[in-house]
Amino acid sequence: MRLPDQEQRGYAFTAAGHAARLHEQLTPELYAALRAERPGGLAEQPIRDALTFVPFPRLPPWLKWRWVLMTMRDKLQGWWLRAEDAGTDAWRALRGRR
Fold first, then answer.
1. Is 1 among the domain residues?
2. For the segment 66-97, what is each residue's pLDDT rounded down to a tens digit?
């Protein structure tokens, strides 16, 4: 994961994501590498894989916080989209009656 070539580093992070899927846990070294890379970069998908496939009690504290934040963001986004759809439907119904 410390290789200078971006593509090869991507393969290493992909392997970490597969390890999370297959074994439902990662080593402390892999968690440290994911944390050092920061979310949003090459580690974004492996972090999401760990959040999806590793049971919550097995996650390190920094990843538990990320799980809480992502869950809250997804919930708020869902509420926003449902409210937007309801507003659009109401507007269409109102315009259809005229």
1. no
2. 899 989 999 999 999 999 999 998 888 888 86
CA angle 28, 31, 35 (to 5 degrees): 140
Domain that includes residue 42, residue range: 6-97
Summarised one tens digit per residue, pLDDT across range 28-62 is: 999 999 998 877 788 888 999 999 999 999 999 99
Closest CA to 47 of 69, 1, 71, 16: 16
C-alpha count within 13 angstroms, C-beta hemisphere, residue 93: 6
User: How much is the pTM?
Assistant: 0.70
Q: In the chain, how many domains are there? A: 1
Residue 42, in any domain of the structure: yes
Q: Say if 16 falls within a structural domain.
A: yes
Note whether residue 49 is domain-resident: yes
Please tell me the distance from the alpha carbon of residue 82 to that of residue 92, in angstroms, as a whole number: 15
